[in-house]
Amino acid sequence: MLQNANPYMKQANLIGGKWVEADSGAKIDVVNPANGKVLGTIPKCGQAETARAIEAAQKAFESFRKTTALERSKMLRKLHDALLDNQDSLAELLTLEQGKSLAEAKGEIGASAAYVLWFAEEARRTYGDVIPSPWADRRVIVTKEPVGVIAAITPWNFPSSMLARKIGPAIAAGCTSVVKPATQTPYSGLAWGVLAEEAGIPAGVINIVTGAAGEIGDELCTNPLVKKITFTGSTPIGKLLLEKAAGTVKKVSMELGGNAPFLVFDDADIDRAVEGAMTAKYRNSGQTCVCTNRFFVQAGVYDAFVEKLAKASKALKVGPGVDEGVQQGPLIDEKAVEKVEELVADATQNGGKIVAGGKRHALGGSFFEPTVIADATPKMKFMKEEIFGPVAPVFRFETEEEAIALANDTEYGLACYFYTSDLGRAFRVMGELKYGMVGVNEGLITTPEAPFGGVKESGLGREGGHQGIEDYLDTKYVCIGGLGG
Ligand code: ADP
User: Fold this and answer.
1) Which residue in 219, 255, 386, 470 is the catalytic one?
2) Element spanning 372, H or E
3) Is 255 a residue of the active site?
4) Is residue 35 classed exposed, middle or buried when 0-12, 13-18 and 19+ CB atoms within 10 A define those classes?
């Protein structure tokens, strides 16, 4: 249990403005991945509680939909201020349940605040259209309206900011929500309930349930009161939710898996590429859907890049996220470590050469060494499978065409990165890569102003940017006749 009570650590669910337990009283333990100790518990809710949360959201929607855009914008500004005023407490909670370093956790809370501020601004810009009418006596008007109750299901790797991208546009649009945070990291999700209370957001606008993922998910996907599902997580679960949501034709947005390539051409600034590679690979211990999964490096700079990447990787400070100066925390759990071990073993069996790390960290638990594997080949499992850990396989290529073909040889299409100083090549490659987001000479590109999302099996819809609110709005066409003229 936490030594000093964190004011944002709620061990209950929020339904219709009341903090409640599961009907059965059942609870689930939440564990600190840095030491395996139990931090606290959360209610193990299921179908019945979820249905009540949806009803509470629907009830709140009846009045919330009538608030003005300016009122909702002000609520979001207060929410933004509450996040920043309490950044340290929220970051501490995040690190304790998730494992990432305190610096990264503070960064995530800052990102949550930035998304909320962005949507506070976008709330006032959900413009419709007045269209030149083809009829002399009629007017043609298009308006935007909130879709209604939305359901948000979020993962454990960014337990705060993934909700910011969903709660932010929902409130901006005038929607109410039922939120299900990941079971491993529920407190950063439940904290949104406390923040909402502080910001004066009306009861029932945000409802939060934790517990049995399948049961809660089924209710969210099949209950006709829910008009939209927004999900961030794995592609297999995303597909399952898409199927379930089809029964009541809900809107869906899906931020799913990635298999990011990182291309380094002979003409690149190698030091800049290595710097970008460190962020694109090791952020959150490699546990992000935009983390580089595959490095493709042109033959002329291959050895130099591998050497520099290995050196920088070995220099990373690994430890519990709360410790001063730590750059890489533990992986989320034992299963994640086993998956990484399996991929590393497969690579070495297929001729991969470990040039940094390669095994569990001496700290034990779910800590893993930052790892670089040279001589990677497309036969290896990480050509297709998401690593979700601190392992950098480096493939060699000869030509631009070969690099593009390798980079696109995946069913995923979320983020990709490439480094070159040739302007012509930059535009050619940018055009050929089949991805929703491209970093050119940059390894960290996420920002609230830009649309985040993927193509192919990486998802549907965009979060952030002016696009980020669209999925929370219905378009209504109104034709007004009999006006004379
Ligand atoms: P990850 O590999 O990141 O854990 P998941 O897709 O399994 O990815 O989990 C993302 C979110 O989806 C979490 O909140 C998890 O609890 C939830 N989830 C898992 N299975 C289901 C399901 N069958 N229905 C609804 N949500 C689910």
Assistant:
1) 255
2) strand 371-376
3) yes
4) middle
Distance in angstroms (rounded) separating the CA atoms of residues 246 and 238: 12
**Can you tell me which atom of ligand 1 is nearest the CA of 182?**
14
Q: How far is the CA of 153 from the centre of ligand 1 (A)?
A: 7
Per-residue pLDDT tens digits for 235-249: 999 999 999 999 999
Q: DSSP secondary-structure letter at 258? A: -
User: How many angstroms separate the alpha carbon of residue 234 from the centre of ligand 1?
Assistant: 7
What's the Cα-to-Cα distance from 60 to each of 66, 89, 221, rounded to whole Å? Answer: 10, 29, 20
> Catalytic residue among 175, 221, 289, 291, which?
289
Kindly give the number of the ligand 1 atom that is closest to the alpha carbon of 237.
Answer: 6
442 given a catalytic annotation: no
β strands within 237-362, DSSP E: 251-255, 260-264, 292-298, 353-356
* pTM for the full predicted model: 0.97
Minimum CA distance residue for ligand 1 atom 7: 234
Contact 298 CB / ligand 1 (< 6 Å): no
Tell me which residue has its CA closest to atom 27 in ligand 1. 213
> Tens digits of per-residue pLDDT, 50-75?
999 999 999 999 999 999 999 999 99
Q: Is 320 helix (H, G, I), strand (E, B) or coil?
A: coil
DSSP secondary structure of 75-135:
HHHHHHHHHHHTHHHHHHHHHHHH---HHHHHHHHHHHHHHHHHHHHHGGG---EEEPPSS
Beta strand pairing call for 371-376 and 353-356: antiparallel
pLDDT tens column, 424-459: 999 999 999 999 999 999 999 999 999 999 999 999
